[in-house]
């Protein structure tokens, strides 16, 4: 069985050379173990955070050099010592970045969204349960509905809006009647945001000062910001939010693939002056909302009112390239690695 491991710790930008593939022999299953053949790997920015020697307090621990990576994956049960899973079941779990995985039916301590979970695909493509109908969809839904408390009258800005989480957040907000401003890193993505996702206004954050670009898109200010990026984007949100504005702190990708994130925002007094509410969240703590999210997003995907794109890489060898491409904005929609 092949497993992707960290070969050396990146001190600046990540490259595929920081990984290596090791072989392991799968032993007999223990009581309650389930053998899963992985078919799709979810490529997630959070893996990059865990490649630093130190991770933020309260977050998942760093990966050690020589240690296998873990990550969200979808696969098919091959053999089961658990009464809850049978061969042929489609499942999601946290033992990705390997061809096959021995997964404890109880979750194996990775917990939360990492628990082994049986998926009824209901006619949807199975890999969508890693993307719009899975963790990415839940993250978008929680950020908008629970954290921001989005209202139809709101003007909302979504950053990294052509990505897995951002594209669902932007579309859900449009479909719920809000005015949506979306940003991404190149003109093709900006066209996709406007013409594909139907947002009201979109810009390439490389095309000028982000604070000015948001102000141009929303001259009267914004009510809410869905932050996937942090850094200068967070600063721009503080400057453009109206009194009582809300921010959902979903992620801060601008600070992941660097030796150390840059200094913090320069305008935090805006939070005081405008009574802003800023709240972080981890979607895994809101697993009880999967059904509500799947109903809403699944309905929109089925009737064509929501679109979905994937950037698919083939085989475990390409997983490092997939992660590097995602961090550098070379993927659109959900980034996945397919295992034959
Ligand atoms: P995406 O598919 O959005 O991929 C990441 C995107 O970030 C890239 O495509 C790139 O697009 C953009 N990006 C990279 N660097 C920068 C930068 N310096 N400035 C602006 N944009 C940048 O990934 P996901 O949808 O999986 O994740 C999006 C965010 O959500 C991440 O911050 C992630 O950590 C967070 N997240 C949070 C969860 C939670 O529970 N809170 C759960 C899952 C994800 P572009 O071309 O536009 O630059």
TrEMBL record:
Q: Which Pfam families match?
A: ADH_N_2 (PF16884), ADH_zinc_N (PF00107)
Q: Which UniProt keywords apply?
A: Oxidoreductase
Q: Which GO terms describe its molecular function?
A: oxidoreductase activity, acting on the CH-CH group of donors, NAD or NADP as acceptor
Q: Which Gene3D superfamilies match?
A: Medium-chain alcohol dehydrogenases, catalytic domain (3.90.180.10), NAD(P)-binding Rossmann-like Domain (3.40.50.720)
InterPro entries noted in UniProt: ADH-like_C (IPR013149), ADH_N_2 (IPR041694), ER (IPR020843), GroES-like_sf (IPR011032), MDR_fam (IPR045010), NAD(P)-bd_dom_sf (IPR036291)
- Domain (Enoyl reductase (ER)): give its ranges: 12-337
Chain ranges passing through the membrane: none
What PANTHER family does the annotation carry? PROSTAGLANDIN REDUCTASE (PTHR43205), PROSTAGLANDIN REDUCTASE 1 (PTHR43205:SF7)
**Protein name in UniProt:** NADP-dependent oxidoreductase
């Amino acid at each position: 069985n092949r497993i992707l491991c960290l070969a050396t710790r990146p001190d600046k930008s990540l490259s595929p050379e920081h990984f290596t593939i090791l072989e392991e022999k799968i032993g007999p299953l223990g009581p309650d173990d389930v053998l899963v053949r992985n078919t799709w790997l979810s490529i997630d920015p959070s893996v990059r955070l865990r490649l630093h020697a130190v991770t933020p307090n309260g977050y998942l621990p760093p990966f050690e050099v020589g240690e296998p990576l873990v990550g969200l994956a979808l696969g098919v049960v091959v053999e089961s010592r658990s009464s809850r899973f049978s061969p042929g079941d489609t499942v999601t779990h946290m033992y990705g970045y390997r061809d096959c995985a021995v997964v404890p039916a109880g979750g194996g301590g990775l917990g939360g969204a990492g628990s082994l979970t049986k998926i009824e695909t209901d006619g949807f493509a199975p890999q969508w349960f890693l993307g719009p109908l899975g963790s990415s969809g839940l993250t978008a839904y929680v950020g908008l509905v629970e954290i921001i408390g989005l209202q139809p009258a709101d003007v909302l800005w979504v950053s990294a809006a052509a990505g897995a989480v951002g594209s669902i957040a932007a579309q859900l907000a449009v479909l719920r009647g809000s005015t949506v401003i979306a940003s991404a890193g190149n003109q093709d993505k900006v066209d996709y945001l406007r013409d594909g996702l139907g947002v009201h206004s979109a810009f390439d954050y490389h095309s000028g000062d982000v604070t000015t670009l948001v102000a141009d898109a929303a001259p009267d200010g914004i009510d809410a910001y869905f932050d996937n990026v942090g850094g200068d984007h967070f600063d721009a949100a503080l400057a453009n939010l109206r009194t009582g504005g809300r921010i959902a702190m979903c992620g801060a990708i601008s600070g992941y693939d660097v030796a150390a994130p840059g200094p913090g925002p320069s305008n935090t007094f805006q939070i005081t002056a405008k009574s802003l509410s800023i709240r972080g969240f981890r979607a895994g703590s809101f697993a009880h909302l999967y059904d509500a999210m799947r109903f809403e997003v699944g309905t929109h995907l089925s009737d064509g009112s929501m679109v979905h794109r994937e950037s698919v890489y083939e085989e475990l060898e390409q997983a490092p390239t997939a992660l590097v491409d995602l961090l550098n904005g070379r993927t659109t929609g959900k980034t996945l690695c397919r295992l034959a």
